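Researcher: Next sequence.
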Amino acid sequence: MRISTASVYEDAVANFNNMQSAIAASTNEISSGIGLTSPSVNPTASEQVLVATQGSDINTQFGVNRSNATSSLSTSDGVLSGVTNLMQSLESQIVEANSGSLNTSDRSNIATQLQSTMNQLMTLANSTDSNGNYVFSGSTVGTVPYAASSNGAVYNGNQETQMIQVSTNQQLPVTMVGSSIFGNIQVSPNAYFSIPDAGNASTATMSNGTVTNAAAVTGDNYQISFTSPTAYNVTDTSTGVSLATNQAYTSGAAITIAGVQYSVTNGAAPNGVPVAGDKFVVQPGKQNIFQVLTTAIAALKQPIGNAAGQTNFSNSMAQANSSISASLNNVLDTRDQLGNSMQQITSLNNVGQTLGLAFTTTISNLQDVNFAQAASQLSLEQTTYKAAQEAFASTSQLSLLSMLR
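Model: Next structure:
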């Protein structure tokens, strides 16, 4: 077979190009530290690297989520720490207010203190996180949780929480439902307080409630409104439903509302008999702390006057004291839940770090270059290339004429 000179040169160039490519590939492996430079090098290992990289990315995102959750939960706990201090201050103020040694001016001063504390509490209840989201609006983080009203404040958030995925199979709430912290105050099952309206014209008093039919108890709030000195209406203020109208009034007679018995008793003359417009509120719970404080402030501003007034005032302070204590328990329970959530995040962070290290190790083992092997391979390729150059330089000079010399 005849081999032309052109073919020899073409083959040599192709071989040199292949060897240069191999040298370049080995040099790139050593300089980058990556041995798995393309799927064609090792398809199986490439697929395993892809799976491990995806797992690592997901694990990293969970870590970011946990960091964000920790920030939100820490903000909430910090706010509730301030709320705890205010609640404890409120308890002390109410105890002081119920002291028999105080005069009208002293009680008015305490009312001013309560108003200031309530304003601070409202500010904390409407706190935002670092992103400007309201902490206690449930999942409606753009809505101001509480708005002031004539009887305290109303809750404008919802009953859901905003969740964040902190691991493959676990979510944690990063917002709080304000009504479960500052509202839904539950006092003891038998503590059904009655509170006279601050605007009552008479000195009539209403007893606290006694359960007579536990099955009928609803836990709603109710109001007795006198339409005349001899008649009254009953309204469920939790639902807005009228339960009774034009009921005959007799001083001291039993008044049963939803399984709980009360009585209204005339006060001392000359204004002891209830008149049209007099109201008594029955509050077994389910009010918010702002309503409790507003009622207490109104009672503190109202002159006591006589024994009947003292009874009404004592009832108001007893209700306020029990409700503030119950509200404080709500706050402390919520802080416990926050603490548990942050402990879970700490545990998940430890797991995440372990997983991250495992993913990094797996990826490294699959794609990182073996420097000793790569250096040896590069040296071999360079030596082969140099030898090939020298061999081609020698053989390319051979011809029939040179052999005849």
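Model: The helical segments are 5-32, 43-97, 104-125, 178-182, 289-301, 307-367, 371-395, 400-404. The first strand starts at residue 146 and ends at 149.
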